[in-house]
Amino acid sequence: MSNPTATPVALAYRHQVALSAATGAAISPAAFMAFGSGDKPYSPDEDTALAAEFVRVPVAVEVVGPELKVTGVLTGAQAGTNVLREVAVFTAAGVLMGRRVMKPKEFEDSTELEIE
Predict the structure, then answer these.
(1) Most buried among 55, 58, 83, 110, by the most CB within 10 A?
(2) Confidence category of residue 1, pLDDT binned at 50, 70, 90
(3) What sign for the dihedral angle of Cα 41, 51, 43, 30?
């Protein structure tokens, strides 16, 4: 059964998983959600970063069956005058796990947005 809200995993992360399977090395855990203002479409086979990152926050993670759920919170104070257009998840080692482009969102200082 597929998940229509799932983000395709980036090639860079798939490489890390394959390398770990081949060598027995540990996989770096999901650790950060990054927020950016770029609007370049996501390309899982080419992207290694956000187009225009403005902040990273630590994440909470949960595993349900074969799915990894990553949650991060962006506050208006962190966003500042930036318009949110892209979000991504990175490992502790800095490898892009996946990226999503969204409709532009602006923030007031007192607002916050939780993204899964």
Answers:
(1) 55
(2) very low
(3) negative
DSSP assignment of 85-110:
EEEEEEETT--EEEEEEEEEE---TT
Single-letter amino acid, residue 13:
Y
Which of 108, 110, 113, 102 has its CA nearest to residue 72? 113
Count the neighbouring beta carbons within 10 Å of the beta carbon of residue 36: 23
Residues 44-82: b if buried by 16+ CB within 10 A, e if exposed? beebebbbebbbbeebeeeeeeeebebebebeeebbeeb
Answering whether pTM is above 0.85, one says yes
Residues 6+ apart with CB under 8 A from 64: none
Per-residue pLDDT reduced to its tens digit, 2-43: 566 778 889 999 999 999 999 999 999 999 999 999 999 999
